[in-house]
Design brief:
The structure is a single chain. Helix content is 20%, strand content 31%. It is built from eleven helices and 29 strands. With 532 residues, it is α+β, with helices and mostly antiparallel strands.
Length: 532
C-alpha cells in the first residue's frame, strides 16, 4: 500500500513544509552589510583607489621565465621548482628568493635563545640540476629595458618575457649585479608603457603599498599591505659582501613575485620585490623589497656599462654605538659612522680623514648608520667630489673627497685571513688581570707579535685571557686580540703599557679601545665597560 502511494506521501510532506515556511514570520534581509554612510564611502573610496592602482600598473608588469638554469637545489634562492612539498613540483614554478636555512637561522638567533626558535632548519645536500624558474619584472623605460632580480635570471640560457596582453618575447640580458640582486633585461621591438618611479627615500612606515607580480606563476597578481620597516640593511640576504637596504612589507610576497614592483598608492614603483622570510616556503607576512632609489641607480649603471662599478672612499667603517659616542665627546644619540681605518693612498686619505673620525654627513645629507653610508657611497659617481661632514675631537669638520673605483682600491677586509700557528697562546704568567672588565692583558713583544702574525713592529697590549660572561666577552674580545689604541680626551692615542691602561681603568667606568684580530689586517673601536 505504501509503495503504491509513495509519490502521494512525498507530495503531502512537501506541502506541509511549504505551509510551515509560509506561516513563519518573515525576516527582512538588508541589501548591504550594516555600515554608517561615511564609513561605507571611505571603504568604497579605498577599494576604488586599489582598483585604480592595479589598473594603472598591470600593463607595465611582466612575467619572466628563465629556462635552462643550473642551480643548486638547496641554495637556489627559491628559483628551482620547489613547492610546499619539498619532493614535489609547484604549479607555475617559484621565482621568489627565500633565505637559505643558514641565513634564516642566523636571523632568528637575534630574537630567540638557542633551542627556542619555532622553526626547524633542514640542510639538504646540494647538487646541480637543470631547471626553470618563474619571476617578475617591470618596464623601466621606453627603450624596452626591464628591471628584475639577479636571482631570477642568473644562469639562464633562455629568458622569456610575457606581457599583460599575452605577447611573449625573448629577452636579452643587459647586465646583472649579484651584490644587490638587481638585473636588467631588454626586449626589442616592444612598446609598453614604463612604470613611473616613486620616492623610496621619503617612504614612511605605515604607508599603504601593493606588491605586483606572478606568484606561483599567476600573472598580474596584486597584494596589499603596509610598509613595516625601512633600512633593513643588516640581514645578509645578498651575502656578506652584498649591498642591501631593504623595505620590509607585510604585502604578500610569494615565490614568483621576485623582481616585480612594490608600488605606492600613486602606482609608482618604490621597491623591487626580492626576498621573503618564511618557515613555510610561502608568505608569512615578512617580505623585502630593494628601494627604487638604490635600484634605479644600479639599473642605470647596468644599462650604460653592462656592469656595476662601485665607488669607494677607502675607509674601513663601523657602527657608532652610544657608548663610543660618549667616549668621543658626542651625544650618545648622535647618528653616524665610525672610521675604523683609512686605506693608505685612498681618496679618504687624500681628503685628510683619520682613524677615529665620525662621519655624520655625506653629500649634504645626514648619515644614519655605517651601512647606510656604505650603500650611498657605492652607488655614487666615481671621480666626482663629495662633501663629507665629520666629527674630530668633539668638533665639526668638513672635507671634500673624490670617490675612486672599488676595483682599484684594496680595502681593509675583515675576512682577510692572516696565517699564524694554530697553537699560538699568550703567556698568562706575565699577564695582568682586570677583573672589572673580565680580561687579562700583557705587553706584546716582537716574539709574541711574530707568533700571532701581527708583525714584529706591532705595539700595544695582547689579550691573554677573557672571562666567560664578562663585559670583554660580550663585545667579542678573544685571546690573542691586540689592543693598540685607547681614546683619551676624545682622541685615539697609542697604548704602550699595562700601567697606562691600569691608570686609565681606575679613573673611568668605560674605555674606548681599538682592537685588532690576528685574522684581520684592520681593526675596530669598541667600548670596555666595567662589570656591574
Amino acid at each position: 500500500m505504501f509503495k503504491k502511494n509513495a509519490v502521494a506521501w512525498v507530495a503531502v510532506g512537501m506541502s506541509a513544509t511549504s505551509l510551515v515556511y509560509n506561516a513563519a514570520p518573515r525576516r527582512s534581509v538588508p541589501a548591504i552589510a550594516p555600515m554608517a554612510s561615511e564609513e561605507l564611502k571611505t571603504a568604497k573610496a579605498l577599494s576604488t583607489a586599489f582598483h585604480n592602482v592595479a589598473e594603472f600598473a598591470h600593463e607595465s608588469v611582466v612575467q619572466i621565465s628563465a629556462e635552462g638554469k643550473k642551480v643548486p637545489r638547496a641554495a637556489s634562492g627559491g628559483n628551482n621548482r620547489r613547492g610546499p612539498n619539498p619532493n614535489g613540483p609547484m604549479p607555475g614554478g617559484p621565482g621568489g628568493q627565500q633565505m637559505t636555512p643558514e641565513q634564516f637561522e642566523e636571523l632568528f638567533k637575534k630574537f630567540f635563545p638557542e633551542g627556542a626558535a619555532p622553526f626547524k632548519f633542514e640542510r639538504q645536500q646540494q647538487s646541480q640540476t637543470p631547471s626553470s624558474g618563474t619571476g617578475s619584472g617591470f618596464v623601466y623605460d621606453d627603450k624596452g629595458h626591464i628591471v628584475t632580480n639577479n636571482h631570477v635570471v642568473e644562469g639562464a640560457e633562455v629568458i622569456k618575457v610575457s606581457f599583460h596582453d599575452g605577447e611573449e618575447y625573448i629577452a636579452k640580458l643587459v647586465g646583472r649585479d649579484p651584490q644587490s640582486d638587481i638585473a636588467v633585461l631588454k626586449v626589442e621591438k616592444a612598446s609598453y608603457r614604463p612604470l613611473p618611479l616613486g620616492d623610496s627615500v621619503g617612504l614612511k612606515v605605515g604607508e599603504l603599498v601593493m606588491a605586483v607580480g606572478s606568484p606561483f606563476g599567476l600573472d598580474s597578481s596584486f597584494t596589499v599591505g603596509i610598509v613595516s620597516a625601512t633600512h633593513r640593511n643588516d640581514l645578509g640576504i645578498v651575502g656578506q659582501k652584498g649591498y642591501e637596504d631593504f623595505i620590509q612589507t607585510d604585502a604578500a610576497i610569494n615565490p614568483g613575485n621576485s623582481g616585480g614592483p612594490l608600488v605606492d598608492m600613486n602606482g609608482h614603483v618604490v621597491g623591487v620585490n626580492s626576498a621573503i622570510v618564511s618557515g613555510s616556503r610561502g608568505n608569512d607576512g615578512v617580505g623585502f623589497a630593494i628601494p627604487i632609489d638604490m635600484a634605479a641607480k644600479l639599473a642605470d649603471k647596468l644599462i650604460a656599462r653592462g656592469k656595476v662599478e662601485r665607488a669607494m672612499m677607502g675607509i674601513n667603517l663601523g657602527p657608532l654605538s652610544p657608548s663610543l659616542a660618549r667616549q668621543f665627546g658626542l651625544d650618545p644619540k648622535t647618528p653616524g659612522a665610525m672610521v675604523q681605518d683609512v686605506v693608505a693612498g685612498s681618496p679618504a686619505a687624500s681628503a685628510g680623514l683619520k682613524s677615529g673620525d665620525i662621519i655624520t654627513r655625506f653629500d649634504n645629507k645626514p648619515v644614519d648608520s655605517w651601512l647606510a653610508l656604505r650603500n650611498r657611497v657605492s652607488v655614487s659617481d666615481i671621480g666626482k667630489p663629495y662633501e663629507i661632514g665629520y666629527m674630530r675631537e668633539g668638533r665639526e669638520a668638513v672635507a671634500k673627497v673624490v670617490l675612486g673605483s672599488a676595483e682599484k682600491i684594496d680595502p681593509l677586509r675583515a675576512d682577510a685571513e692572516v696565517e699564524k700557528p694554530a697553537e699560538a697562546k699568550p703567556e698568562p704568567v706575565s699577564a695582568t688581570s682586570f677583573e672589572q672588565f673580565g680580561l687579562s692583558l700583557q705587553a706584546i713583544t716582537p716574539e709574541l707579535a711574530d707568533k700571532f702574525g701581527y708583525g714584529r713592529e706591532a705595539k700595544g697590549l695582547l689579550v691573554a685571557a677573557v672571562k666567560e660572561g664578562s663585559p670583554a666577552e660580550a663585545i667579542g674580545l678573544q685571546e690573542g686580540f691586540l689592543i693598540s689604541k685607547v681614546v683619551k680626551n676624545r682622541i685615539p692615542a697609542a697604548l704602550t703599557s699595562v700601567k697606562e691602561f691600569q691608570d686609565l681603568a681606575e679613573k673611568a667606568d668605560e674605555l674606548a679601545v681599538y682592537v685588532q684580530s690576528p685574522r684581520s689586517p684592520g681593526g675596530r673601536f669598541v667600548t670596555l665597560s666595567k662589570q656591574k
